[in-house]
Structure formats: C-alpha cells, structure tokens
Amino acid sequence: MSAIKAAIVGGTGYTGVELLRLLAGHPGVEVTAITSRAEAGTPVSELFPSLRGHYDLKFCAPDIEQLAACDVVFFATPHGVAQAQVPELISRGVRVIDLSADFRIKDIATWEQWYGQKHACPELAADAVYGLPEVNRAQIVDAQLLACPGCYPTAIQLGFIPLLEAGLISPENLIANAASGASGAGRQGKTELLFAENNDSFRAYAAGGHRHLPEIEQGLGGVHTGSGDVRLTFVPHLLPTVRGIHATLYGTLAQDTSVEALQALFEKRYRDEPFVDVMPAGSHPQTRSVRGTNMCRIAVLKPQDRNTVVVLSVIDNLAKGASAQAIQNLNIMFGLNENQGLESPALLP
Amino acid sequence: MSAIKAAIVGGTGYTGVELLRLLAGHPGVEVTAITSRAEAGTPVSELFPSLRGHYDLKFCAPDIEQLAACDVVFFATPHGVAQAQVPELISRGVRVIDLSADFRIKDIATWEQWYGQKHACPELAADAVYGLPEVNRAQIVDAQLLACPGCYPTAIQLGFIPLLEAGLISPENLIANAASGASGAGRQGKTELLFAENNDSFRAYAAGGHRHLPEIEQGLGGVHTGSGDVRLTFVPHLLPTVRGIHATLYGTLAQDTSVEALQALFEKRYRDEPFVDVMPAGSHPQTRSVRGTNMCRIAVLKPQDRNTVVVLSVIDNLAKGASAQAIQNLNIMFGLNENQGLESPALLP
Amino acid sequence: MSAIKAAIVGGTGYTGVELLRLLAGHPGVEVTAITSRAEAGTPVSELFPSLRGHYDLKFCAPDIEQLAACDVVFFATPHGVAQAQVPELISRGVRVIDLSADFRIKDIATWEQWYGQKHACPELAADAVYGLPEVNRAQIVDAQLLACPGCYPTAIQLGFIPLLEAGLISPENLIANAASGASGAGRQGKTELLFAENNDSFRAYAAGGHRHLPEIEQGLGGVHTGSGDVRLTFVPHLLPTVRGIHATLYGTLAQDTSVEALQALFEKRYRDEPFVDVMPAGSHPQTRSVRGTNMCRIAVLKPQDRNTVVVLSVIDNLAKGASAQAIQNLNIMFGLNENQGLESPALLP
Amino acid sequence: MSAIKAAIVGGTGYTGVELLRLLAGHPGVEVTAITSRAEAGTPVSELFPSLRGHYDLKFCAPDIEQLAACDVVFFATPHGVAQAQVPELISRGVRVIDLSADFRIKDIATWEQWYGQKHACPELAADAVYGLPEVNRAQIVDAQLLACPGCYPTAIQLGFIPLLEAGLISPENLIANAASGASGAGRQGKTELLFAENNDSFRAYAAGGHRHLPEIEQGLGGVHTGSGDVRLTFVPHLLPTVRGIHATLYGTLAQDTSVEALQALFEKRYRDEPFVDVMPAGSHPQTRSVRGTNMCRIAVLKPQDRNTVVVLSVIDNLAKGASAQAIQNLNIMFGLNENQGLESPALLP
C-alpha cells in the first residue's frame, strides 16, 4: 500500500512539532506539506532542531490545491481557523483531523458562548465525529471530519466513563481537579508563561470557567446511563512541567461499592483498549510514565472506604491529549493497525 | 528586654535551617544551641552555606542541661522524638514548640493508629496547645507545650474554617486536593525524592490515607457549628517545586449563598489576622507569592454559580506550614509583636 | 534622620519588583513613586501579589516634577531610557542610580557599537561612577550618577580581580564560562523564554558576543597591573532556574603559585568586604546559597596542580547582580550602614 | 535472522531502564534476562511503569548459565562489578558490552588511582575495545569486550577530535566546561541528589578532579597528531535537569584559522557519521534537541575572531552517553544497520 499523504496546517506550535515527531516513525504516512504564514520558507528543522535529519520540509504558505491533493489534513491551529478552511477540503473529498476546538461541541450556541465568536459552519459541526476512540471507535472509521478531543477532556472523560456508564456515581456533583504542563498553553510568547514566572511555583487558573468544561460535560452526558444531568466542577492548574496532565477525579458513590468491584469495573471496561492502562489498586500514576506516548494510565481508589471514589488519570497533553490521539484516529480512519507509530515506551526518567 | 534563649533539637532538616534563617532576622531571639547527633561538631554554616556569616554555631549532641537553660526549645525532629524528651524539659519549666506530629492529635488511639507506635506521654498530649493562631491565639499565650500544625493541615484548615464556622457547607463530603513541594518530604536521601525522579513530572501519593487527615478532621470538627461529622477526602500530590503548598478545596453549599457573600465572609473572618490574606474574588494565588513567608493567601470561588464552593489556599510548607508559624507562636507565647522576624515579603520571582 | 525619598522608573520588570522587595525591609528609604506608562494606575500589589500588605503604591506615569522631588531615582529600565531622562534629574540635584547599561561603558564608540544606537549624553557617561563597591567604594560616596554593573560583569569581575590585581595570571586568554537563571532575560513575553522552551534543557547563547563583554574587559583592564591587554572569551548559558549566576573562570598562571597562596590572596583581598565570601578551598558554591541576597560567594581551585587556576563565583542576578547592589550603592552614597536592608540570609532550600 | 539474545546485568539503574526503553523498539534484539539481586522477582514494569505493556520480564538474581546462553550481555553496573564477572562470560564466548568504567582506561595504574581499588583483570582491559564508533568503528566490529565511553567523555571527545586530529589547537591547555543532568549521578537515594537540593540551583562539582578526566585525556591523546601532551582542565557542573550533557570546550588555535575553515573541518570530519550533527555556524545546540536520542549536536564558534575556538557539544547522558551508544555498538558488533532502534527524533518540547 502506498503511504497516506498528510498535510499539517499551522505547524509551528507544539501540536505541530509533536505530529512531526510521531509521524517520523510512522511507516504508513508521508507528510507532504506543513503550513505557516509567518514561517513560510523556513525549514522545519531550523525551528525545531530535534527534527534535523528527519525532515527536509519547509513551512509553506497555505495552498488549497496542495492541501486538496492530500489524503488527510491535520489542523494544528488556534480555534476559529479550521472552521473557515475545512468546508472546501471536505467538499473536495479530503479527510480532516482537527486538533482545535472548532468541531468538538455539538451545541453551537454553547460553542459560541464559550469561544466568544460566531461559528462559521455549524452544519459541519453536526457531522463531525468526536475522536475519543474508547467511546466512538465505530464512527471514527468513516469520519470525514474528525474533531480531536481536548487534553483535559481526554484525561477526565477516560477516568469518569466507567463509573458513569455503570451508573455508580451521582452525575450532579462531579469534581475534576486537574493540572497541566506548560506546553498545554502553547508556544506564544506571553509573560505569564515565562520560565521565570512558573518555575518552582504552582497555581490554579480559569477556576471560574475553562473552555474544556462544556466539552467534558457533553461527553460525560453522552455515556451516563442513570438519571440526572452531568454537572462538573473543573479546576485546572498550571504545573511547572513541560508536558503531562494529571487529573484527580472525585465522585460520590450512588450505592455502596467495594474498591475491588471498582477495580474490576475499570479493568473490564478498558481490557481491549490499547491505550488505556488500568494500574493495580493503590497505584499513583506519574505523568512521566506516559511522557511522549498515547497512553492514559488510570488508578481507582476509595479512601477510608467512605463513599467518595477517587480516580487518578494521567496522559501526555501533547500526545494522547492531542497529536498522538490524532494519529490513533488516523490509524482507525484509514484501516491501519491502531498503534502504528505509537509503540514507543515513555521517556523515563 | 534581654533576648529569649532558644535551642533547636534536630536541626539538620529543612525545618531546622528555616528556623535559623528566620531567627537570624528576629531581634528578640537568640539561638544558643542546635543539636544533631550525626553532625555534632559540624558548623551549621558548613551544612548550610546560606548561613555563612550569620551563625557561628556548631551542631552539638543533645545535652539536657544545655536545653534546660533555654527559655524555649524547638523540636524539628521526626515524630516520636519529642515525646521522649519533652516531659523533662516541661518539668524544668522550659517552654516547648514542637514542629513534629507528636502532640497534634488529642485522641491517642488515633495517633497510635496513624503513626504506628505507642505514644510515650499521652498526658502531655492532652495539655498541648494546637498552634494555629487563627483559631487558638488565646490558649497559645500561656502554652507550655505548643504543637505546631502540619503543613497541609494549616493550608486546608484556613481555607475551610470560615465556611464551617458559619455552617455554610455540608461537613460530610469535604474534598481537599492539595499539592506540596518536595521539601515537605524532608532531607533524607530516598530514591523517590531524587531530582531525576520528580523533575518534569507530577503524581499523587498517599491517596489512600495520609497522616495529616486525622489532624485536619480534628481541627475542622472543632470549628464546625452545624450538625454532622466532618469527613474529608484528602489527596496529596508531589509538586516538582522545592517549596509551597497549594490546596484546592471543594465544599457543597448547604444553602444558596452568593459569591459576594462568600467573599465577605472570608474577608470578615480574617480581617484582623496578620498572616491570612483574602485575595480579591476571582484570584488564583500562586505558591511563589508566599515563598519564604508566614502568609497564607486565599481565594474563594463559586464556579458556574452552582452549589460547589471552591477555595484556593497557598502557603509555604516550610514557613507558615512549619518554622515561620512556630515563630509566630513563639511571638504570641512570649508577648512579642506577632510579626517580629516575619515581615519580609516573599521572594518573587 | 528622615527617610531618603526614592523613586523607581520602570518598575514592572524583575529588577523593579526586587528593589521593592528589598526596600520594604530598609528602614532608611521610602519609595514615593514607581513609574510605568503601560501599568499606570495599577496597584503594584496587583502585578506582584508578593507585595500585598507591603505597599499601597500604584504605578504612575513618569512625571519629572515628582521625580525631581526625590533624593534618589532608580532606573530599572531597558537601555536607552535612562540616558534620555537622567540629564534633567542630575541638573536638578537628584542623585541617580541606573541599573541599565546606559552609563557603564566609558568609551562611547564601544557603547554605540554594542548597543546599536547613538548615545544621548556622552558627557554624563564620563562623570558616571561604576558602582562596583569592591573596586570603587571611594568614588561611589560622592557619585551623582551611579552606573550599576551588569549581572555577569559583577560575578566575573569579582572572581578575576584578585588574580589580575596581583598580576598572577596572563590577561590575554581569560575565559569566563557563565550561566544565568531566566529572570536575567527579563519579563517580556518571548517564545524563547517560555517555560516549555527552557525547562529540563540547557544551552549557550550569544556565544559569538554578549553585550557584557566590553563592560567586563573595561573593568578588568582597570585593575590589571601587569603587561598586556585583557582579552576575555565569555560564553553565557541559560539555566533552567529563575535566579542565579554561576561563573566558572579560567586563567593561566603566569608563574607557579600554590593553591594555598591563591586561597590566601582571595581571603586577604576580600577580608573587609561585607558581600564577598571566599569559601574554603575545594568548595563548590551553589547559586541557591546566595538566593535573594547581595552576597557573592567565591571558591578558587587549581585542578591537578597544573598551571590553570579555576575560580567559581556565584551571585543572584537580580540581587548582587542588580537591585541589591543598587541598594548597597545607595547605602554608600547616603552614608548609611552599607548592609542596611541587605542582611537577610539566602532562601535555602 | 533470529533475534540476538541479550541480557542486562544490574538493570535497576537509569542506564538499565534506558536500555529497555530503546530495545523495546529494536527489531533485532530480544532481552531474555535482566538481573538485580535487590529486586529479584519484581516485574520490571513495577519499578518502571513506563514499561508496562512492553515487557513481561522480572528482575532475576544473576545466573551465570542464563547469561552464558545469551549472545551479548550488557553490564549496567557500578564500577568494579563487571571486571569480576566478565572473564567467565568472555571465556564462554559471550560478547560483553560494559557501560561501566571498568575497561575504559588502558593504563591500569591510572585506573586504580582514580577508582581507588585494585583492578580484577588487567589482561582483559588490554583487549577491551573503547566503544566510540566515530574513532574505533573498525575495531568495534570484532570486539569481544566493548567498553562503552562515559557520558562526559563522549560529548567532550567528539567536540575536540576534529581540532586535535588536524593539529589546529594546542593540546596542553584544553578546557572542558561541562554540565550534566541529575540522572548522570544515578538512582541511589542521596541527600545531595534530592529534588529539594537541586531544583532552581546550579553548582560545579568535582572541580578538583573527576574520574572522567583520565578517560578523556587518553582518548584525545590517541587522536592528537601534533607535538605535546594533551592536558585538559575539566570542570563538571550539576544541572537542574533530568537528562542532558552540555559541553562548552575551549582551545587555543595554534595557527590562524578562519571560522569558515573550522566549520568546514567539522562538517567534513563528521559527514558520514549517523549520530554526529554539525549545526550551522553560530548555532547554540540545546540539550533537549537530543533528548532520548543517540545524537550528538555540535557547533563551532570563534568569538571576536580571536585565537580561542569554542565548541558546543550536546548529548543525552543516558543515550549517546550510555545506553543508546551501547546499542550503536551492538549494531556494529553484530553487523546490523547502525541506527536500528535508534531512529526516533528527540522529545521536544
């Protein structure tokens, strides 16, 4: 089989370089173009010396003909960009994997409220497939437009899903206390993201309301089997790390359930999932244990044997939380082995 | 007034060097001895070069006569040590400030269960005063034996106290998601505390049960005015920072309360407290904003205007969480200005 | 004596907040104004929460009358700003302490070459006193315009001075391999200074030529007693730390000199200096041992007893490398105790 | 061809887990055993959760029969261990790749002086091949006992080799100012390696004499073509990073040579080397650009066009500085493609 031709739109950010890093080891995909207006003409290996010897590509200005000649186009752009460019690509038969937030939310009013702008193509949003393979694998196979989940939503949903599918916890007072490495905030030069502002310090941010909240509530609402609406209190924090998301999730057990039963539930739910690892009871997964990989590691606890269940869920925000999950989706969409290009163990230490 | 003579037992750890650092700038206290069996004879400035030029002291083997000649003795030792040595000091009229966990818990059975050993002097534990000035200032004045609160318990109690005193939240499903810098785990060489094990990574630990849990529940139980027992789910995490505790607290409002009313409640409760700073609504306190100081900074939020209240509380684990709070207690015990030796702003950046 | 009235021009950067932090504990100085066009009207404690409770000041737009009413004005501005504003202040009798590079270099052509612009007042540059107290204390006393040394130049000069004054090393092949924390690069949002770009990584920068080179060569040339010109190879590096400069200096011994003689030379040279600490032979000073202080710690070595002498010199770039040294200079200029406001030990750990 | 059977002796350290990480992606090698007395019976994935799903191996006690049944045995042990066990393996025809220092130094008296113990098999040391492929590739092919270079020696030799081979610099006053991430010091719990001791700080260590010095001088002496002995001043530093070595090398040009000629020299020398990347003139290689890879990136500079040449050389201490270079050597020894298992780009950011 000839290689799948892929392009990356907006490749100067961290999800762009992460796509390139992972695709360098993917035998079935060839990156034919990577666009950036600001860096057009610059070799990718100049901006990212880690790629010297791996790519001869230069960033190029976006060109619809070039993109339309690909089998698949990744959007690694800020929100608002993909929705303007995707319709034409879709209409010309190109499959699109969007890593931005443009097509994650089905309710357009909600999207417009949280992202503060008019949505450019609500009709496509309705057709977009939400790319969380652990829930939507069947639909992903045929997706024309794939909306890759956000980083926090991936870690948090994978931690709550077994409990909500089984109706074991009350959906109305979920708590997700999560922390992300600084790469999650992007590669833009901003004072609050400086090394000197964040090293040896820690803080919450957007505790009053983060854009990933409606995405998570939508996803959890879709799998919840019991009565009541899903309502989540979500407080993100900024870690002095480059990568990694650690979610500490709290739910109130609707009925008495032993920790052994909880463990068994999680193990069964994810038994066939190549990228969800349910660790032994009592484990404390570290973010470094998934660094650079598509893996989500999960542990479930029931402290003091009371009625609160605690789930610890870790991913790499740039990998399972973005670019590696995008490749997992590509593998599913194109009928490849699901873990192609995603087999390397995490970099530890 | 002549200076208060103070000794430090077990001074080679981080709370020891922090006491020395802070007392170097305290005009009313003179450190006359600092003990360490292992380092007896070593100048403190050799172990801690930051103190070169500030102290001529050498570590010395513990000598009861030398300690008994002091006005106050700090114990900066692992648990189990103070309870063996304190009785004689107390009987000889020396006041003791214990930074360890030996006298924090009133229920001896609970102490013995969590610390895994027999308590050596339960009768003294009953008399010990729990040194959280924001709750116990009056009793601290006359304390002979002062039990300094733990680091997590300080940050967490200060965040929950106004809500529980006012009976505004249900006491039975409190959640404290907290994170500490690595200095909180001490200066012992352990693989899991190595730089190479923790940098650029993050994890929970002791999620199944941390020794600070009973201390916090005891303290919160003491201030709670409503019905029901205090039950806390407490999940600590290890930050890749040297100092700092960040507690993210969640409570369920027992009745509808506006965020403005919550803010006013906190501001009123701590209006006269020199070391609790209620930040403006919507703030996200950073651990670095209290680095090296006795300050606790707090923000209160009510995300999405739902019925969950979120409190963010930060301290420096070695300062307000240990040695600076010990000095605050000393100032109260000896009738000094409460903020003597504790006035310097935090080191930022 | 009434307090010295001081203003800070350009106070939103790291040297500005460091001046405020240190002056909060200085009994003889009152900060009456701090200027920033961009942040005019913002309370300093809003931008820097570490200062909450310490200052009621707001940033204000620069106003010459307000500045002229002060005893001393600090310039904590990028180069090019002070030279435009200082002449009028000087003419009105205000003393100026400039933390920028505007008046450090005596040779105006050299300044213009390295800083890439025309100098606005060469005549003042000639009168400016270079504020390295260990060399220029006598002149500092009467300085009207004080040029505070750069951070690298402070650490590097203090390390080489004893050797060059004594004519012990060849001046023509000096090597300064130095590393700085990220705060040295300022508080501007730039991609290359992001946390995600620098954590867990290390690199040299400006190895082809750094602006501090001519300043260092000028200073060392001034103290060198032997024949030959001072020529320095200076390679700076960017550390994944917030603060700290570590200089590793290499010189070729012009004549055989024992390590004991070298140690004695350094100890004698700095015996009366309150802020230079010559550590025991064989020491390896850590940057954290001077964190937040005006101290420079130095160790001298002679590896393998060959003819290369190695000097290790550490300072805090924002303190002895900028704001604390500025206060040391103020103390000297105004006849105060030289270490007022500068007595606190370093924050360790 | 059937897979090469490999065992790892002493696999609980960082070079052990790094071998496992890299070999997980090597199609030609099967790890059949990994030994550790202390952890015998523990699954490797329990100690290193990053390997969950990649290995079913448990650590086992060393068993000579099991080791003798392998094609190759890696020693990832402290010095002194391999020399006791290697002779029997060699005599039974097993090829050995030793990552420790036991067989790097040809002069046994020098080895014994620096390592402070008697060498157990000097005769084998004479036969051992020093595994720096860029110098010794031909001998490596047939090596029975391969001594893997140290981490500092790899980075420093690769930077100096072109200059010394060409006789362009004086060999007698070489300077290597180098810095290593904390993983280079191993996984033993030691106070001085704690996170709280090293984060946000930086220091030199072993400046008076580091064990890698004689190894480097031996290697450089072997390639130097001019007159005079190689004498190096080598000052190592401890970085607050997990991985990475950055060497900043200084040499005095023996004759005037343009920076263009220097650049051309390096490019020509390493043109055919798969794992040495000569970057464009003026580059500043970052340690993260080689994180997790076998690559050495080098830049050459001639500051101020004076007679000092500066070479910047970065590697990953655990990869090209240890385990990846070991695999490169294995590939050469067993006639495999030299970059098998070593193709992945660095993890950046």
From TrEMBL, chains A, B, C, D:
Keyword vocabulary terms for this entry: Amino-acid biosynthesis, Arginine biosynthesis, Cytoplasm, NADP, Oxidoreductase
SMART domains the UniProt entry points to: Semialdhyde_dh
Location within or outside the cell: Cytoplasm
Superkingdom classification of source: Bacteria
EC number(s) per entry: 1.2.1.38
Catalytic reaction annotation: N-acetyl-L-glutamate 5-semialdehyde + phosphate + NADP(+) = N-acetyl-L-glutamyl 5-phosphate + NADPH + H(+)
Pathway linked to the protein: Amino-acid biosynthesis; L-arginine biosynthesis; N(2)-acetyl-L-ornithine from L-glutamate: step 3/4
Record has Phosphoprotein as a keyword: no
Keyword Transferase: no
Active-site residues, Swiss-Prot/TrEMBL: C151
Family matches, as Gene3D superfamilies: Dihydrodipicolinate Reductase, domain 2, NAD(P)-binding Rossmann-like Domain
Catalytic EC class: oxidoreductase
InterPro entries associated with the record: AGPR (IPR050085), AGPR_AS (IPR023013), AGPR_dimerisation_dom (IPR058924), AGPR_type-1 (IPR000706), NAD(P)-bd_dom_sf (IPR036291), Semialdehyde_DH_NAD-bd (IPR000534)
Gene Ontology MF annotations: N-acetyl-gamma-glutamyl-phosphate reductase activity
A Pfam cross-reference name: Semialdhyde_dhC_1
Domain Semialdehyde dehydrogenase NAD-binding: start-end pairs: 5-143
Record-linked PANTHER family: N-ACETYL-GAMMA-GLUTAMYL-PHOSPHATE REDUCTASE, CHLOROPLASTIC-RELATED, N-ACETYL-GAMMA-GLUTAMYL-PHOSPHATE REDUCTASE, CHLOROPLASTIC-RELATED-RELATED
Record's function text: Catalyzes the NADPH-dependent reduction of N-acetyl-5-glutamyl phosphate to yield N-acetyl-L-glutamate 5-semialdehyde.
Family: Belongs to the NAGSA dehydrogenase family. Type 1 subfamily.
Name used for this protein in its record: N-acetyl-gamma-glutamyl-phosphate reductase
Species this chain originates from: Microbulbifer celer
Lineage, broadest ranks: Bacteria, Pseudomonadati, Pseudomonadota, Gammaproteobacteria, Cellvibrionales
Protein encoded by which gene: argC
